[in-house]
């Protein structure tokens, strides 16, 4: 492990890997990213969700993602995205609302969907953004747990991870699509709680764009996807493929770099989808990397 007093602890954030053994559009990109990440000897890898193409309807996608995660040389902490457990009712673009049954599949195959990690002098908190705004009992349980965690940091710097971002830069209160961000009522409460607690960063995925902006004392960081670049013509941020390389220091300072590893392929979603509206309904796609991952396990 790196001496925290000198170089800081190394953390890698990956996101939106969108893996599937059957619709294996992005398996090669995951393997290219992992090859590069495994050379870093990171102290921790955090995955901020959308592990799968269609884990909501196809648990085999989640099981395949779990197999792929075992290729990581570093310990991984994982969070769910809308493609894994579904979206908030009322905002479900793909008619895949999050349910207790879908959460259970994820928990059985991956593990806890929210978590705390003491990491050097830091406290890292992973949140399940998909239950925010649902009214499920788990939503209240997670928010109570978060309040307790924030009350008991004992002065440690805190970093927060979740799948969906909280806002666009310069557009916090504007009417933005609910399926892109955490739903508005919950978003305002969560945002003010995190800002009041002075968390050092809130790091998300989902938009397949890289962004790093400061609001008050807190930096809001969007991770690039490993699967495909965003085609969203809204908001800000740079569409890119890759991952984020963090150094976290004992005094609460940190650095982040966006890395685009060699060998990643830019794929056009419109070509992959064929006549389908959503990627989950696209024709199957073969990739040799599927066998490599299955053979590894
Ligand atoms: Fe995604
Ligand atoms: Fe997503």
The shape is globular
**Element order: H for helix, E for strand:** EHEHEHHEEHEHEEEEEEHH
- Please give the CATH class: Alpha Beta
Largest sheet: number of strands, sense, barrel closure: 7 strands, mixed
* Helical fraction: 25-40%
Description:
With 297 residues, the chain is α/β, with parallel strands linked by helices. The protein has one domain: 4-Layer Sandwich (Purple Acid Phosphatase, chain A, domain 2). Helix content is 26%, strand content 19%. The chain contains 8 helices and 12 strands. The protein has helices spanning 27-38, 59-69, 82-85, 100-109, 137-151, 184-196, 269-273, 289-296, and strands at residues 9-14, 44-47, 76-78, 115-119, 122-126, 158-161, 201-204, 209-215, 218-222, 238-239, 243-248, 254-259. Helix 5 (137-151) links the parallel strand 5 and strand 6. The two termini are 26 Å apart. Residues 50, 81-83, 163, 206 line the site of one fe (ii) ion.
């Amino acid at each position: 492990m790196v001496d925290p007093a000198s170089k800081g602890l190394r953390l890698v954030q990956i996101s939106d890997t969108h893996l599937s053994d059957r619709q294996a559009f992005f398996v090669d990109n995951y393997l290219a990213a992992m090859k590069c990440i495994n050379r870093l000897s990171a102290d921790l890898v955090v995955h901020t969700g959308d592990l799968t193409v269609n884990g909501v309807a196809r648990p085999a996608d989640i099981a395949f993602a779990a197999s792929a995660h075992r290729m990581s040389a570093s310990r991984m902490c994982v969070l769910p995205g809308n493609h894994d457990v579904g979206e908030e009712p009322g905002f479900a673009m793909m008619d895949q609302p999050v349910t207790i049954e879908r959460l259970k599949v994820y928990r059985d195959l991956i593990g806890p969907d929210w978590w705390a990690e003491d990491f050097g002098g830091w406290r890292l908190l992973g949140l399940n953004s998909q239950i925010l705004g649902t009214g499920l009992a788990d939503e209240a349980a997670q928010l109570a747990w978060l309040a307790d965690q924030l009350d008991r940091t004992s002065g440690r710097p805190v970093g927060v991870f979740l799948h969906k971002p909280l806002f666009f830069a310069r557009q916090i209160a504007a009417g933005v699509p609910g399926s892109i961000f955490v739903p508005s009522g919950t978003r305002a409460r969560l945002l003010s709680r995190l800002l009041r607690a002075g968390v050092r960063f809130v790091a998300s995925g989902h938009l397949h764009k890289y962004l790093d902006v400061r609001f008050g004392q807190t930096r809001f960081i969007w991770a690039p996807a490993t699967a495909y670049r965003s085609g969203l013509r809204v908001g800000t941020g740079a569409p890119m493929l890759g991952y984020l390389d963090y150094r976290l220091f004992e005094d609460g300072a940190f650095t982040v770099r966006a890395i685009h590893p060699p060998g990643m392929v830019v794929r056009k979603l419109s070509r992959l989808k064929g006549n389908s509206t959503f990627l989950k309904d696209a024709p199957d796609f073969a990739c040799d990397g599927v066998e490599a991952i299955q053979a590894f396990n």
